[in-house]
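Data availability (excerpt). The following record was deposited with the supplementary files.
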Amino acid sequence: MEYNSLLFPIFGLFIFFLWALDYWKVLYKPQLVVPLGNYTSKINIMRVINFAIGTIGWVLISFSLAGPRKPLKIMPSDIEVNDIYLVMDVSRSMLADDLKPNRLEVAKEKLREFANLRPTDRIGIIIFSEKVFTLLPLTTDPSLVDKILADIRIGFLGSGTNIGDALALAVARGQNSDTKNKVIVLLTDGVNNVGNMTPLDAARTAKDYNIKVYTIGLGTIKSRLPIGKDSRGNKQYQSIPGGSIDIETLQEISKITGGKNFMASSEDSLKEILGEIQNLEKTKINVKGQVVYEELFFRYLLFGLLFFFVSELLRKLFFKEVL
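Predicted structure:
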């Protein structure tokens, strides 16, 4: 059996000491003594028994304050994981509505489903447009990953599509990981047109660190971007800035790194693609072991309070004390 704290039980025993002084009226001076013979002896014996009941109650209460608990099992210190970086395009073209309601919302929904199915993996999130940004470092908290993905918005990283630097940032963050199986899932709907590093140079760096890159081109080849409504309330569109998806570059990135390339032209196809990536091989990483406990404090507290209240009730009803 283990304990959370030994300080609170000391406080409980101090309160018991004060209760005992009050019980035996140690600090009270009797004003009238009436000899009652045998009846007084019986009363004293009952008071001793009742004091013992109260003492048991206080001991149990004080013991419960120590937070007693019993270890049930130790979680293994090795868990099977992948390191997965989700690298997501958040350029303005992701608002195209060839996927409903638009590419961005479909991507967010399917990536959330993907992440929720990998509770033991470490997942990080990088977003990019003209600039690149680490939205979430590697974490094993599925609820945090889900919240971050749900909150992704477009607009604060400028205009343009910086695939090369985004991929290089994911490689840089993953290169020092202890996990053998490191994976990048790159999702974009455009052509690299800004940045310091080309996508293929970033792919070669990924290969050097044994990081596989799965590339997903999102959207149909020909699509339009909603830009508002005209005076009659009809939607207006413009061609996707920067052209269509650079399929050849995405294929080459995956080929260099040993990953695979996919095209997702619908919500269902994106779901199928991410389902295929779910079959990644797992490896192990050392984490701090966790012990699962059965908490025992409540049962001791409950019985302690029961004994104490019985003792106090007898003082009032049997001994006619004013409490």
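Summary of structural features: The mean pLDDT is 83.
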